[in-house]
Amino acid sequence: APALVNVEISLNGQQFTHDSVPFSVHAPVAVDAFSPSSGPVEGETVVLVLGGPFANGSDYRCRFAPSGPTSSGVPVGAPSADYWRQGEEAVIATVGGIPLNSSAMRCVSPRQPRPLRADVEVTLNGQQHTTDGARFDFFDPPTIAATYPLHGPTAGGTQVLLTGTGFHDFGRVSAWPEARNDLRCRFGASILAPTT
Fold this sequence. Notes:
The protein is mostly beta strands and 196 residues long. It is built from no helices and 14 strands. Strand 7 and strand 8 (104-108) form a beta hairpin.
């Protein structure tokens, strides 16, 4: 549980100040789940992080540390497995986090130079990060080349086949049990989960 302790200093190990400067300590923090589990390399994906406890922090941050290739594999010409680590343009990025309550916080994914997998860790003080290894996949944005059929009734119910590039299903379950994955289709203002 969070607690306040007083900080004092001594120059000789015996006589301490009596200033009673407060310092807050908190329980160990964990990342249990987050959603969505992927986003485009351009960043700007709002990520809801679940876990905690996220109370009593002073400098909330989310760190996206490149850790490996995405589920779509290593790109042609990648020099080695070290390509996915800290060098070779991979960027360890730390962004501000916003606590929503004691078990949820929000952060926005940073830009990355190419598709990669990153570990998402959080900190409440800007220094000690969790070490849970929660994975986030950065992908190149998909493109739609064509739809079939080209139209359907306003009442809906038309199965539409999309063709294009970059359609990835990273295969992980969302933070919400009712969602099978984070893949969605938008028709105007309507957002739907795809069917198989």
